[in-house]
## 1
Amino acid sequence: MQFERISHPAPVPGKTRAEAIANPGFGTLFTDHMVTIDWSEDKEWHNAQLAPRGPLTLDPAASVLHYAQEIFEGLKAYRLEDGTMALFRPRENAARFNRSADRLAMPNLPEDAFVAALEALVDADKDWFPTVEGGSLYLRPFMIATEAFLGVRPAKEYKFILIASPAGNYFKSGAPAVSIWVSDYTRAAPGGTGAAKCGGNYAASLVPTREAFDRGHDQVLFLDAAEHRYIEELGGMNLFFVFDDGRILTPPLTGTILPGITRDSIIDLAREEGLDVVEEMYTLDQWREDAASGKLLETFACGTAAVVTPVGKVAGHDGEFTIGSGGPGQLTSKLREKLTGIQRGTAEDTRGWVMRLG
């Protein structure tokens, strides 16, 4: 796919950009450009552009505003030691994007077009790469239904959009491990959209997330919808449990949990270490019991934004408990170091996960 390149009339001045990316935070600072591609029933994908980032023009009756036909992805561009830019498993994001599209009755975007859009935007805005330690260029591809109509059916017009955000650390607390709140709310039910990366899932998590923040916690934990006993995932991350017998457990992908790319990578890396990784149901009561007995050594969360993050404390209406010493565990730290080393080019990539750009 060829992108029409529209020059930016007033990009952010270099000095202003340098000051901004020295401490970018997460998700509040954006680069100069964006990619857009249109889809319609008669033309399919067309009008691909790399253009100045700016507001969208939508009809008030656009389907996304009324029926929530919207999906998105999240991945990062990294700067390697030799100065080149790279992406981590971008085709996995492209494949998941299309699985989400299938669930939301939206058109598939060819994987090559998805990756080409990432390459074009990173190349245009690579000077926005943050100088903060551990920084990255966070990439947000998304698709919305743009057809103007009122009626419950799949739309006939869509727009794919890609924006970028210089990113520092996801969590702001600075604590060695995060604290999570067990929610009484449900994120997703069997047969629903839990395995799709769509805005509706995250909208459902906002009230419980606010409740967690108000109580002084970093994240919210969701249990299963049917029995409200089994651990599923956090507001935006998958969970892993490390036991004293060398076993690692993570909840299975049953359609209510997002199949994380970081999750899949961690499973592979842990098995390479000779660890027994199992995907099994795990209850909150068993988690509390195993933490108290010392059988459970570590718990960590993982996702694109937060990478690998130790969980130190769990709280809910029934009280709270601590995992291990309440700080990072040895295996959590080891897996994080191994994963980030591959992503940033300081460790050997034997699987072809890293895609160099340029």
Note: The chain has two domains: 4-167, 178-344.
## 2
Amino acid sequence: MEARPPTFVLPNSPSCRVLDRFSDLPENISVDEDETGRIPFWPLLRHLLQEPISTATHLIDRLQTIAANAEGCHADDYGSLKSFLASDLFAANDFFGSTWLNLREIALDLPLYFPEGQLGLLELGHPLCLSRGQVACLVVHQFLSSAVPQRQDDGYQDFSIWYASRQRHPTAVNMYLSSLFAYFESLPEAKALIEDHKAAPGDPGRYVTYELHGYDEVSLEGGSLGAVHIDYLDDYNTESHLPEVQGPGGAVVVSANKVIGFGQTATQEEIFVGIAPEACPAVLVAPHLTDKTTITVSGARAMLTVTGQRRGISWVVRPSPAPTGDFNSWIQGWRGGRLLFMDALEMDMVDASDKILPDLLPENIDRELQKAITGFTAYPERNAVWSGLWGCGAFCGDAGVKLVVLWLAASAAGVKLNVMLSTEQHEMGRQLEALVKECEGMSTQSLREVLSDVPEGLRKLEILEWISGRVSGSG
């Protein structure tokens, strides 16, 4: 996979030039046209945004025009977006009379928020801390599909993937559009966002922070095994992202791909990012994850609470503070939790014999431990982490091995591990609880050595049972 370019170019960059495909720019607006007929994109985009929009049909027509000028891969029929804009949920709000006007002003403030017209990719030791206004501006432009295409890695840079009629998972797309428009309705006025941005307050809760983290070697020698708590859930849910659940030092593990971001279905990663629009700009600045890096997004508010995954999802819109009135009051009720993006090994892509479980190959255990420790030590105030069966879905990881790896990594990082298990996974939880009790007083290094001795042919529960027997002396 080729590395991404070092910067993401925004529409107001002097280097962002496009063809005025429909001759929309009035003649009285003077621009510099180059030898290929291209003009700076920003004057054209600004004109398109300033033109009145009063109906869903007008909006979709404008989105199509913007996407065509940006030369993006836009959806020809915009059927899913049309259906959403015709729904009762959308009709209940005065979108074109108030919300759209506010979004337009936020979008037009792009040069004030990002005068250089570009974003650098995340680098180790250099977090990107954006004001709520900056984040809102980027999210609105992702909705507009106003950035020229800049990705060659199958990652998505804007929300146009949710607009076409043909969707692999229409319910999930409807959920993400519900989240996005709930976010739009909840935003304060553009003027208040700009004033807050210029004030540059020192409270970290007023920002969304995107950060790349690298691996600092942590020895298992001399360490002791930490606490584990099992959350026995009836069904998967997203409450672990809420700041009132996490506390100031918590994070929820997002089972990420190397190319992080949102999508069109309802995987765990797509859900966590798609229901928190403030997390979505991460795709503009996130480099591809390596074996020794993870990414955190801190402060992005989840607009929905979701139950279930994949085909079995349902959601409710979370109450948000009123966007009018005192901005300080709004921001106090707006805070979001911390998302920790960790990519597990794709075990179905690992070479191994039929007898040897690829999860148990020494190099794979070390890699997964390294990845999890990188994530769990990513920020200094850490004290707890929430995780499901990381890497055990589409990546085909073994749940028994992964639970031990997560426990070892959390112990090495000094954080409490909270394991979230849905109904069909409860037996795994009970067996892990039994193992934790059996390993009381045992060192992390000793458990790591026992994990290396698991016999061929064992899987999932059998692995936890075998380790318990080995530790107790009966195995």
Note: Residues 7-339 form one domain.
## 3
Amino acid sequence: MNKQLEKMKQNEEYERRKRMAEEKHKEWVQKKREEERRERKRKLTKEMAEKATRELEKLRLQEKADIKYKEWLKKKIAEDAEKKKKEKEKEKEREAELQEKKTRSEKIFKEWLQNARNKPQPALNGYGFPHGNSKGLYIQYTNM
């Protein structure tokens, strides 16, 4: 009887210890899962924060690039306008020079024309040749 009772006590003790070990194992597994869940949540939060930081940095750099591009574009437009203005001025100067040259040429031509009218005409029968040409012996050489 004693042995049976002792054996029963041992079995009960074994069963109790087994249940305790299973409960502790379940608690440990549950704690481990909870820790893993918290760790995943912490990592996810950290990744989200880093991603948000990267996005903000990207936006800041994009805004900075946009500002620099606008400044460059404004400068380029101003340079182009200045270049066109200088080209127009040069074109006006060329046109003025051409007009002045034309006016001067016309004036000189009119003076020449006026002077040409006042010049005496050369004699038509110069050097005793009729109509200014020689006749006779020199004709052979001129017709050859």
Note: The chain is about 85% helix and 0% strand.
## 4
Amino acid sequence: MKYYLFLAAAIICEAIGTSFLKKTEQFTKPIPTAIFVIAMVSSFFLLSNALKGIPIGISYAIWSGVGIVVISLVGYFIYNENLDLPAIIGIVCIIIGVIIINVFSSSTTHS
């Protein structure tokens, strides 16, 4: 269970970092750039801790899949970016994939 907490924290940090990436304006704004770097380094540190108890492929699938969903929502609600029907369908497919991995896969724990 603690490894999934590391993974959840890694996802949160990755979402924060990616959210600030746009605000860095190609790394010309120091404060958003610093937040981005700190959040991403933290994310990878936490992800590396999650890998102690969750296989790398599963960890990365969840980390990137949930990250895509969260960042899409940040883009929609914070940056007023449009999500058309194909984008929404794709995001739903990602969510379904993460659920399938967690509920049905025996690969989610080390042997």
Note: DSSP finds four helices and no strands in the chain.
